[in-house]
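thought: fold this chain, then report.
action: predict
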Amino acid sequence: RFTRAIRGFFGRFLTGIEQRNPEILLENAVQDELDNLKKLQVAAARTMAYEKMLTSDAAEKQKAVTVKERQARELATRGQREAALQVVQQKQEAQASLQEIEGRLVEARSNSEEMEKAFREQERRYNDLVRERAALMEEHQRSKALRAANEARSNISLSDSSRDLEKARQAIRQSSFEAQAVGELGTSETER
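observation:
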């Protein structure tokens, strides 16, 4: 219960930060897609490596089958029937092994194609997200600049400046009248 409360608190805290800074959300989304892309790349590389290994094994077994077949013919032409039968048996074992490898190879090729397709799809999604992030960041920067300009405009009030100008006029008029009054008082005392 306590841990849920703490998780809830931090969740709300992070949500507030993310709402104030959408850059964080965009970076997290891009990073998640990149992590998925890397995982798929590793998985695709493994399946493709397995396919190549099976292809190599199949080629080696095919060579072994061909060699055993040639050896069996040579032994049969020389009249070594027992030795030829043993080589034919070895050839049949190699053919059975080759068929088993070819069966796994078909499955491995299918898996490789699927993994490569999934990787290419994830790569496309990642690239689309990077482009979208750039566009959204540009839009976000424009909106921040526009918001700052609107705030600055709202802080500049024409009525405030005209009110200040009127106060200045009033103060100057007041000073002027006071100066005249002092002048009249000063002149009237000296004349007396």
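thought: worth noting. The CA atoms of residues 18 and 24 lie 6 Å apart.
final: tokens above.
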